[in-house]
């Protein structure tokens, strides 16, 4: 987002969360009854990231206008009133309305969910927010939304239940229709790449049985992945875990190479010890986006861990929540120790270097967990110990780490 094509080396985040997708579900589905810890991670990422993104790129956009697209929006709220992703984003749009216009487009296929979504959007419109509810498949509306997004930055959240937009729509229609060098063309995508769908559809390759829908389903996967290459990856894998990892990694690399973007992969699980349910894939063409996204993911993880705490038991003097803050402090100390070692490794290899040029290396092992404040803390510790001439004061990204 700095107006250049400069991108980070491909980075991998492997975080824990829960599975949730919204395409193919209507508001009567149990998924929409209440928000479990399942949806906390992705919702917190959106809350933590969309406003910084809009604030940053909207500074250079005509009238401060930034376009937001949610391609699989659902009803907008859960039945218990908890905000879904559309309600969360509309709240954020209202919060920044004084200095940025977040122009929101929400697409939903199912009629009942769309009706609920329309009510939510109508309420937002009456409050002066630029919001639009569109019914149908997201690819049906892509050209319309992209036309309206001309000259403005765009953030797209694509969270399907199963297979989503095609590879061609992702690379050629969305990214390919937009310039790369200007702030007004900043384009970022957060995509749900469904591991359960990969396992299920990949299983078709291991059976010789023919049944209705087999070939069309495999072809749909080909379209989503941009070719049949994923079939070879699946067959060459020792198990489903390896297959999902290999296919997701290759997919994100192919998209990134095709559009000139860095890609981050966030593994989302039902619980830390469960198999991956889906990956959140983030694509950005600019270094600023990667830094901002890393901050958002780190903060979102804190709230995810908090959401997983068991409810207090009546009559119990202490609960796990009582130790939460202390455990978070311990995690932060561990992250700082890792960052210290990474910085010292870079000192040996690079001598003097600028923090902004080495995000993946500095955050190796804690990428997506730690934040800029932990980099600063590590640098200050090294300075106090006489291991660098940099005192850690100032913009973290601009710090130049030197020897003594």
List the helices and strands and how they pair.
Layout: E1 11-13, H1 40-58, E2 65-70, H2 85-95, E3 101-108, H3 111-126, E4 131-135, H4 138-148, E5 154-158, H5 167-175, E6 187-194, H6 195-202, H7 214-225, H8 229-236, H9 240-259, E7 262-269, E8 276-284, H10 287-307, H11 324-350, E9 353-354, H12 359-362, H13 372-384, E10 400-401
Parallel strand pairs: 1-7, 2-3, 2-5, 3-4, 5-6
Antiparallel strand pairs: 6-8, 7-8, 9-10
Describe this structure in words.
This protein has helices at 40-58, 85-95, 111-126, 138-148, 167-175, 195-202, 214-225, 229-236, 240-259, 287-307, 324-350, 359-362, 372-384; strands at 11-13, 65-70, 101-108, 131-135, 154-158, 187-194, 262-269, 276-284, 353-354, 400-401. With 404 residues, it is of the alpha/beta class. The chain has two domains: 11-307, Rossmann fold, CATH 3.40.50; 323-401.
């Amino acid at each position: 987002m700095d107006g250049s094509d400069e991108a980070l080396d491909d980075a991998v985040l492997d975080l824990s969360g829960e599975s949730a997708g919204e395409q193919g579900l209507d508001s009567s589905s149990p998924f929409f009854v209440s928000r479990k810890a399942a949806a906390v991670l992705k919702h917190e990422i959106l809350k933590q990231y969309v406003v910084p993104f809009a604030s940053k790129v909207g500074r250079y956009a005509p009238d401060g206008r930034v376009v937001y697209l949610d391609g699989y929006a659902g009803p907008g709220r859960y039945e218990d009133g908890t905000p879904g992703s559309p309600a969360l984003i509309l709240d954020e749009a209202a919060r920044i309305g004084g200095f940025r216009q977040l122009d929101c487009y929400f697409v939903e296929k199912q009629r009942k969910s769309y009706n609920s979504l329309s009510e939510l959007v109508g309420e937002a419109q009456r409050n002066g927010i630029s919001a639009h509810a569109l019914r149908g498949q997201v690819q049906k509306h892509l050209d319309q939304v992209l036309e309206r997004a001309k000259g403005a930055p765009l953030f797209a959240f694509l969270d399907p239940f199963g297979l989503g937009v095609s590879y061609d729509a992702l690379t050629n229609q969305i990214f390919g229709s937009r310039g790369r060098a200007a702030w007004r063309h900043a384009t970022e995508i957060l995509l749900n790449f469904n591991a359960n769908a990969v396992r299920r559809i990949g299983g078709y390759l291991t059976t010789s049985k023919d049944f209705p829908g087999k070939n069309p389903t495999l072809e749909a996967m080909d379209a989503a992945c941009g070719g049949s290459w994923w079939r070879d990856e699946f067959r060459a894998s020792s198990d489903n875990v390896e297959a999902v990892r290999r296919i997701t990694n290759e997919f994100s690399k192919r998209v990134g190479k095709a559009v000139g973007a860095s890609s981050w992969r966030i593994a989302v699980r039902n619980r830390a010890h469960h198999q991956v349910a889906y990956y959140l894939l983030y694509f950005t063409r600019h270094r600023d986006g990667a830094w901002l996204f890393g901050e958002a993911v780190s903060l979102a993880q804190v709230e995810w861990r908090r959401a997983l705490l068991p409810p207090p038991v009546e009559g119990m003097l202490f609960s796990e929540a009582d130790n939460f803050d202390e455990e978070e402090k311990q995690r932060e100390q561990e992250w700082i120790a890792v960052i210290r070692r990474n910085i010292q490794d870079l000192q040996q290899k690079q001598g003097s270097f600028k923090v902004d040029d080495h995000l993946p290396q500095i955050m190796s092992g804690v990428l997506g967990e730690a934040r800029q404040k932990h980099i600063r803390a590590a640098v200050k510790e090294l300075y106090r110990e006489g291991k660098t001439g940099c005192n850690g004061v100032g913009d973290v990204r601009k710090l130049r780490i030197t020897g003594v």
